[in-house]
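Deliverable D2.4 — example input (structure tokens):
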């Protein structure tokens, strides 16, 4: 019997594969990899070690990965959040190695960014230069705090500072309503493979907003259609349900309106559901299905 493995979620090459695939694929070597965290604010994950290759998805600062191989300035990694496999520049990975259980180490993130976008400052003052911008979902270790003119700042382990009000402990959901969270991304630019407050695609919006409410979601629309929630009838659609087209997903804001990152406006936009069905239908046909998330 021939087994077809999804290359997005399974790490295998003729020379190397992850240990979980031993006996399922042929490879010269198998590896458990080493645990690490991403250090760059937002890192594109590519299907091959080539900056001209398209972006499959993105990994945010502080998210955990398993590093399977390093060569030629690239790292072959598997993302802990959703199991996605691909290549990132080696320089975007934290130089500090992690133990086998990274979330239990001293360097583990303590807080997560709870707003779509914010800045890391070189000191505890909004007038200080900012060293970089970060996205909702970024994780970091808070090692202290300071207050300047009534504004609290968290000091991070790398010496930078972030607005304390923009952060939340990693063990607490940012929101209980993922639809309300999705609405906070309105007018964020559309980016194929994007998964951040700087650019996001349709399935990235669903995944990130569910993640911030403490719920796991796979990365791509086909994966989400196959595993999220339960199928429902079109007539039953209400707030929080998902509408799928081939290669696209939208969130029902209410019975008549959707929120979705889309290539038509090139933004996260609010659109009438029937208008969207008519507009999309002539090119991509009718929706393929509707799903309701399970109550947690």
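Example output (designed residues):
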């Amino acid at each position: 019997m021939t087994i077809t493995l999804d290359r997005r979620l399974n790490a295998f090459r003729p020379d190397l594969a992850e240990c979980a695939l031993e006996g399922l694929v042929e490879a010269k070597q198998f590896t458990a990899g080493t645990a690490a965290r991403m250090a760059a604010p937002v890192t594109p994950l590519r299907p091959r070690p080539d900056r001209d290759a398209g972006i499959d998805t993105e990994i945010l600062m502080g998210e955990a990965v398993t590093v399977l191989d390093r060569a030629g300035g690239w790292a072959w990694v598997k993302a802990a959040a959703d199991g996605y496999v691909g290549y990132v520049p080696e320089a975007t990975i934290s130089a500090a190695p992690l133990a086998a259980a990274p979330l239990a180490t001293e360097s583990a993130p303590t807080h997560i960014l709870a707003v779509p976008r914010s800045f890391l400052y070189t000191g505890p003052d909004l007038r200080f230069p900012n060293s970089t911008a970060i996205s909702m979902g970024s994780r970091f270790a808070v090692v202290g705090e300071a207050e300047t003119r009534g504004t609290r700042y968290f000091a991070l382990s790398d010496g930078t500072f972030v607005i304390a009000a923009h952060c939340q402990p990693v063990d607490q959901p940012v929101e209980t309503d993922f639809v309300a969270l999705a609405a906070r991304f309105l007018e964020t630019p559309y980016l194929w493979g994007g998964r951040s407050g700087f650019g996001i695609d349709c399935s990235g919006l669903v995944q990130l907003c569910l993640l911030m409410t403490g719920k796991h979601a796979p990365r791509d629309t086909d994966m989400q259609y196959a595993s999220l929630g339960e199928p429902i009838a079109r007539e039953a659609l209400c707030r929080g349900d998902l509408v799928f087209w081939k290669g696209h997903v939208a969130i029902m804001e209410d019975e008549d309106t959707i929120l979705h990152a889309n290539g038509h406006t090139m933004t996260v936009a609010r659109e009438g559901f029937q208008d969207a069905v008519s507009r999309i239908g002539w090119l991509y046909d009718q929706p393929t299905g509707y799903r309701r998330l399970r109550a947690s």
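Confidence is low (pLDDT under 50) at residues 99-106.
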